[in-house]
Amino acid sequence: MYPNLYEGLGEALMLLTFGVDFVCLWHLFDPEIPSEIVSRYRDLTQNLVSDAYSPINYQSWLLPEIPSSPNQKAVPKTTMEVVKQSLENLRRTSFTRSITENLKSNPLLNRWDTKIMRSIIKKAYRMVYK
């Protein structure tokens, strides 16, 4: 069973009200999902974000297949280990540059309620800048 098309959009929109500078929605797809379904899901989500003129930055990736190995300890056993290993592989490429270029900024940053929420969060996490 696959998640709804709008999975994660609500949380991403909520983060904008917290006063973060940028919000990204990432979808990481299991390599076992058929490519037609991945392409359709990516396109529909991208179109939804774009057509709504959303300030959410959307990107998606197909996780690489993890080859089986005679050494069973080298093969991740949980989904989180697979995601961590895949992100580490992406980090070694131009991944960081690709996700930080042309980001759409948060249009709510100058609202009074967003400023209050941002200051509360900064104070709670001791994120004071000099």
Would you give an account of this structure?
The structure is a single chain. The protein is 45% helix and 9% strand. It is globular. It is built from five helices and two strands, in the order αβαβααα. The chain has a two-stranded parallel sheet with strand order 1-2. The protein has helices at 9-17, 35-51, 79-91, 95-100, 112-124; strands at residues 24-29, 57-62. The chain is mostly helical. It has one domain (9-124).
Which terms would index this structure?
5 helices; mainly alpha; two-stranded parallel ribbon; 130 residues; single chain
Give a quick precis of the structure:
With 130 residues, this protein is mainly α.
The major β-sheet equals: 2 strands, parallel
Query: Mean of residue pLDDT?
Result: 81
pLDDT < 50 stretches: none
- Whole-number total of structural domains: 1
Structural class: mainly alpha
**Termini, distance in Å?**
49 Å
**Assembly state of the chains shown:** single chain
Q: In total, how many beta strands?
A: 2
Strand order of the largest sheet: 1-2
How much of the sequence lies in strands comes to: 5-15%
Provide the succession of SSEs.
HEHEHHH
Number of helices: 5
The outline comes out as globular
| Radius of gyration over C-alpha positions, nearest whole angstrom | 18 Å
Q: Specify the helix fraction band.
A: 40-55%
